[in-house]
Each structure stands twice: as C-alpha cells, then as structure tokens.
Amino acid sequence: MDLLGSGIFKGMAVTLKNFAMTYFDRGRKERLPTVQYPEAGDTVTLFTRNFPFLIYDGEEEVDGMRCVACQICERECPPACIYIVKEKDENGKFVKRPKVFDIDVSVCMGCQICVEVCPFDAIVMDSEFEYSKEDRFGDLLFNRDELLKSNDYYHKIHPEEAQARDANLAAKKAADEAKKKAREEKAAAAAAAKAAAEKEASEKKDSPEASEPVAEEPKAEPAAPSENHAKAESEAKEKPAAEETPVEEPAAATDETEDAKEESSGGSEGKETSEEPEETAGSGEDDEKKAEEGEGVS
Amino acid sequence: MEDPSKSTTSEAHTLSDSVDLDDATRSEMEKAGVIVSSVDWLYNWARSGSVWPLQFGLACCAIEMICSAGSRYDIARFGSEVFRPSPRQADLLIVSGTVTKKMAPQVVRIFNQMPEPKYVIAMGACAISGGPFKQGYNVLKGIDRYIPVDVYIPGCPPRPEAVLHSLMTLQKGIRRQRTLGKGSNNPAYVEGNREYPVPSFSGKDLDPPYNPEVWQPPEKRPNMPEDGCP
Amino acid sequence: MTMESSVVAGSEPTVEPRGFELIEREGLETNLLEVSMGPHHPSTHGVFRMDVKLDGETVTELRPVFGYLHRNHEKLAEDMGYLGSMPFTDRLDYFCSMTNNWAYALAGEKMIDLEVPERAEYVRVIMAELTRLVNHIMLVGFFVNDLGALGTPLLYALREREKILDLFEWASGARMMCNYMRFGGLRNDLPEGWLTKCREVVDAFPYFLDEYEKLLVENEIILVRTQNVGVLKPELAINAGITGPMLRASGVNYDLRKVDAYGVYDRFPFRVPMGEVGDCYDRFMVRILEMRESIKILRQAMDELPEGPIMGEAPRVFKPPAGEIYGRIEGPKGELGFYLVSDGTAKPYRYRVRPPSLVNLTVLEDLCLGHKVADAVVILGSVDIVLGEVDR
Ligand code: SF4
Ligand code: SF4
Ligand code: SF4
Fold first, then answer.
1. Domain A51-157: assigned CATH number
2. Which of A241, A287, C297, C327 has the fewest CB atoms within 10 Å, counting from its CB?
3. Looking at this predicted complex, what is its ipTM?
C-alpha cells in the first residue's frame, strides 16, 4: 500500500472492468447473464424437483393410474402432507386405487421421500414451480385429478429418470408375466388335483405364504432407488402367488382387517377350512404390527 | 392486460345495486366509473411497476429472496429491486421463512408500521402453513392467521423464479384494483390504514391464536383434528 | 447505521426495565443508552437480537437474544424415523445442506458400523468442498455488505454461488435443500457430464477469487474497519469451544479434516490456513485462503474419483442397537456434530445437534466490548452465523 486510497481505486478498477466487459462478452457463460424469465425461459433443469405428482399410463387418467393406494407414502412423508382414501367398489370392497389423493403443497417440502418409498413408481417429482396463488385453501391443496399427469409429461421433464423407471417397470412386468404363466399351469394342475384329498393341505400351506407380501409392502425402506426397485421387483414376483387363491386377491392392496373379512366370507369355499381364515387373519395382524414398527424407520 | 373499463362497469352494477340508486344516477356513475377507471389504470400501472419490498428475511427462504434480487434473476426487471430496510418506506412485505411464535408479534408489528397501500406475500411452505415444521410446538401455522396475505408461493424454498412469478401475480392483482372513486375495492382506501392487533407471546402460545378479522378456520375435513387446525 | 428502524421494529420488553443511568464524566454528562438491535434489523444475519448498552457509541454490554427461529428441529426428529430427519438437516444451516447431510449420515453410519463405498466418499468430499466454497463466498459477500459495501461484492458472490448451486441442482434436484446423502452412501449417482461441468466451475473459481481479492483485501476502508476489531485471543477461543475458521483465525491449528480424517480426507494434502491476530480481518482472510485450499482438494478428488457403487450395504430397516453416538465433521462454520441416542427402536431416543454457529456466537460479547456499535455489526458478520442453526 503506497498511497492511501490506492486500494480503493484498485477495487474500483475491478468493478469498472467488469462493467465495461459486459458490453463485449455479453454471451459468455461465466458471466451468468440474466435469465429473462418469464419471456425467455427459466433455469429449470431436467433434474429439478419441486412437488410430487402421480403418473398414469396410456390415455385414461384414472384407469391408467399406477398408484394402488398402499398408503406407504402417506405414512413416510415427514411433514405428513399426503392424505389418501381408498376407493371402494359398489360391494364395499376396496379396489387398488385411491379415491382421494390430496397433497397439500403449502406444506410439502419437496424432499422426494414419497418418491423413494413408493414401490410402484407411481409418484414422482415435478419441476413445475409457477404455483403462486391468491387463495391458500382453494388452490394449494392438490387433489387426485390435479396431481395426475401422464407418463409422456414425465418423459418430457425428466427423460433419464423416466427411462430408468420405465425399464424397471418393464422388467417387473416381464417377471409378472412369467409368473402368471407359471401360475396358470400350476392352477390347471391344481384343478386336476383338487378332487384329491390333499386340497386342504395345499391351502394351508398357501395362505400364510400369500399374506406375506402384503405385510412386506409397508416395510419398504427408502434406501437407494436401485435397492427399492429390486425389492419392488421381488414383491411383484411374490404377488402372483398371493393371487393364486381368489380369496387372497384383495389382500394385495387393502389393509389387513379387510383382508380378514374377505377371507372369512370367501372361506365358504370349503367348510372344512373354516378355521383357516382365523389363523391367517391373526398372522396378518401380527405382520401388520411388525410392519408398523418397521415403517417408522425410514 | 385485461380491459379495465369493462370489468369496472360490470362490477359497478352490483355496487350501485347495493347502494340503491335510480337509473339516471347509475348511468352517470357508470360513466364516471369509466373515467375513473382510466385514471385508475394509469395509477395502477405506476403502482404495480414499483412495488418496493421490505428487506426482511426470516429463514432459508430469505436466501432465495436475496437470490432473486441477484443479477441472474434480477428482480429489478419488475421494478422491485429497492429493498427498503425500514417498513415505513416499503409497499410489500415478503414473509420469507418460518414464523415462530416468538417472531409473530414482530411480523404483525412490522405490517402495522407499513403505510398503505401495502401487500403481503407469504413465501415458502413455512410462511403459508408452518410447512415442514408445522407439527412443532413453536411454529406459527401460517402467517395469514394474523395479517391478510395477498399471494402465496408454495415451495421449500421456492425458486427465485417463483418469487418473480409471485410478483407478477401480485402486479396483476394490483392492476385489478379500483382505487379512486366510490367503487373502490382497494382496502387501503376503503378501510384506511389497516392495523391489526399484535398477538402477545406468553411463553407458551400466542394470544389470540388467530385474528378472526382476517382468518377463519377452514371448513373441516375428515382428516383434520378437532380444533380445525390443518 | 439505521438504528431507528431497529428500534421501531423492536420486540416486547422481556427483561427487567433498565432505564437510563447517569454516568459522571469530567465535565460531560452522558447517558447509557440501551438499543435493541433486531430481531428485524437490516444488518443482523437473520432474526437475531442484540440488546446493546451504549456509552455514547461504545458498547458496554451486549446481550444476545436467541430463539426467534426455534423450529423444534430436535424434538421433531425424536418423533420421526432416522431417515425422515435427513431433509430436516438441510434446513439447519441452509447455506450448507450437503455438509449437514454428511454429518448426520456419518453419525448414523457410526451407529450401525456401515461401510461407505469409496466412490460415495469421494463424491461426498466434492460436495462438501463445493459447499465450503458457497458458504465462504456468501459469508464474504454479506460481511462486506455489513461494512457498507452495498451491492457489488454481494452480487459477485451471488453469481458464483449460482454456478455451484446449478451443480447441486443437477446432482440432487434442488438448489438449496439437497437431501442428497443417505446412511451408507448417496441417494443417486452423479449424472453424466456432471464432472466435466464441475471441473469447469472449479477451474474458473481461482480467477474469480483473484478478482475478488483485488476488489476487497487492499481496500483501505475494509482494513480500517476490520483490523484489530474484535480480537479473539486463542486461550479464550479454546475455552469457549470455538471451532472452524474462527478458531483458526486466532492461530489455533485445529481442523477436523486433519484431526479426525473422516471420510477419505487423509488422502488429500492440503494446508490449514491460520491467522495471527484473531481479528475480523483474519477471520475474513482465513476464509478466502480456505477457499483456495478447497479448490485444491476438489481438483484432486475429481481426478481420483473411482468408479463403483454409491450405496453401501444399508439395511432395509434402519434400526440401530441401543447406545449413543457422536458423529462430527468439519462444516464450513466449524465442528458440526450430531449426537444420537438410540433405545433400539426405529426412532432416536435423543437427537441433538452441536451447531457450530451457536457455540461460536457465545463469545460475541467479549469481542464487542469496547468497540463502537457499528463494529458490533461487523463482528457479528465475521462470526458467520446462520440462525437456522443457532436456534434450530
Ligand atoms: S406409495 Fe405409491 S402406490 Fe402407494 S399410495 Fe403412495 S403413490 Fe400410491
Ligand atoms: S416430497 Fe416430501 S413432503 Fe412432499 S409429499 Fe413427498 S414426502 Fe411429503
Ligand atoms: S419453507 Fe422451507 S426453505 Fe422456506 S423457510 Fe421453511 S423450511 Fe426454510
């Protein structure tokens, strides 16, 4: 420092240079020129996440919905901003679809945990951010129909992620198909063997096994996505087993109490198996409890 | 921009209906309304182009608010780059971040100190509803319980562009306002200087829990707890 | 300074009434003036309040008042699964979500003896050092802003920060609240092309630093306002538990990256910059020098980044055995630690954060006494606090 004030002038020279250079290297990326939002785009990338939305496949919004209302995301969401009510058909049976699926985006913190825990790849993150509204309760509570967006849209905003997810789903589906085939063959064999006396025995063996994947679901751990997918896959493989006995079918998507009801009503198949449902229902509840414990983890 | 004269006349009908005027006066008022609204338009155009926010940050969202004033997003393009440190010189209060129960009285006080016409943007999940911390014991579940909020920006934190978007939403709202004349729907001119009672923090909770003038518990939904707090 | 605004925006009187006191001086009669700076004050960093007692303009007493941003982070975490707290740690020190994630992940990994794959460790180092750049550059920007250099330096800092935030957004999806690390690794791998872009940003950074230094460090006003202001003696610093750049500015060589060598930090040769006097200028310069060291680490980490998995053998259900653990890292502001007590269930029994800024703030009164009130603002800026972390 030779002359008092020379430091200040050095600093001023820097700002002056910066100012002058803006006229010469306007487009240089290091300068990070102003993004002319809203006229000329924004800074949203292909990886940006903001709020979740639900995917549907194909054209039909509601029918193509991937969500099966398993409510895992509802339980895992840290600020608890998801609200799900399952849909019932006219007989009062639960179908694999949410009737109400609300996300309160005025609470959501965009943490992506719901996406990580969803075993069905049904919920993913959106990059849309223009949600400024003048009405909080009316506009910022997104219901199911507002949340549903097509898979094409997902491919548009997050192409890489969407491809990975689709590939994963396709693999799952293929595994599903293979299982189905095997199951059909097995079912045929089983029909032939039905007359035989070991019917009850086979049922006995099936039911507890079948209820297992149901209990498994809520345990879904939001670990690495890859792991998650692997688990979902294995689950998908197990599920056909659950569907083997018609009695068990709704169990895959509904909760345990309903499960037990279904079983007791469906138990009319064979009078001699009437004590069976009790047992399975019991084990199911146990599993539920276990799952309840487990789910807090993630 | 929408045609201001059109909306004015249609609304003037309902207004004059309520005041119970005869047809002649009404048509006269409509005429007057047209004239007034064009002055309005100029006035609102000027007002909406220079909304000066208060330099007031609460938490993480404030950083994104500062970012939106940075050169990359440049809030100056919307005429709002002048962040005033004093509430007396500001038009817009951006509640950017978590309002705790200890901080809420100060926020209301700051709002009271701002001169009319004043606007409030609730930025981020926390300011709207308590956000991620809404289950906590010390977080106010939405600043709209005490002061009227004009625009809500969801997000945690909202992107700087979302702040700009909210500003545009606010500007649209300002341009819709009718300021002069009898048909004014601008609270600044109808109600005078809006000052709301400052809640007191007793160490446990705020008293009163909300200001019934500006906020009522929403309609109860099946998953809501008894007290109606979402 | 804009004192008036702080007074009008002041808060309810919580302390016992302390009125004006008359002090006898030779010839001159002065009053002790009490000013409540904050919680809304243009130059306090966040909603922080200082009750200062002034004799003329000299600070004779300073009482910090906390709690305006107490968000029950710890209590909420005790009611939530271990992973559920991860996004909340982002919001502790909102400039440094990556290092917060790391500290918490480290504590969790210690609890169940989890191995982290090498690639994940390297990526963590890269992210942490980028975070350090963001934090320090913003600190310097706000610091000179407090000194009265409104605008330009802060805008330059914001510009550089944007570049790094773009990298974060690319890797994790969000600009500020990254929520990127998991127990045992990372949530997702680096996207393709990320490293190239990161290299570009890191390579351009030293030029920016040169420019920034030219802009600031010789400026006479900054020298006068910061040198010999708020001197922190090393003994006091150690006794008060100060960590991070603030401790090193006082001339104590203590850097957890060297001491603990957590992660893979033992593989990187880097120097620990230290100050001599411990005044505001040293604290400011230490940060600038640290950024240069960070760039060195970043370069090496990017060169050596191995291929491989990014996630260890994390159990599906994170249920640590009963016990307690303290995991700490060298955050940009100091030692950031997470103390977890588990009772064997899926939720922590006790969850406690050791926030560096709160501990560093404890010496504020010692630093400010005897200085002018305008210097109190400068000193507060040099301590580098973020209220989200102080109050939690
Ligand atoms: S976890 Fe997935 S499938 Fe289950 S309810 Fe949520 S979105 Fe639907
Ligand atoms: S992103 Fe996070 S906060 Fe938002 S709905 Fe999903 S889990 Fe809940
Ligand atoms: S909404 Fe999110 S980013 Fe904003 S203050 Fe709250 S926690 Fe922070």
1. 3.30.70.3270
2. A241
3. 0.81
